[in-house]
Amino acid sequence: MESITIMVKNEEKARMLSELLQALDFVTEVKFNQIGQLPASEENGEKADFFALAGIWEDRQIELEDIRRQAWPRQQ
Known about the structure:
Elements: H1 11-23, H2 64-71
């Protein structure tokens, strides 16, 4: 199953689009969020900015083998 998120500026047109989608036989569910409401995935915190962490390893000398050794230590 696939999912699509559509942002619409006008509430009236958003409702019209929602009704159109519900009329299609291959659409299983349509959720309508009012302006100002956050989607369920964002209710409990801020939206994460993936690119905010860019460059955090820039000045560190770390090798892939070191990461693997720490992640999967051999049990003796």
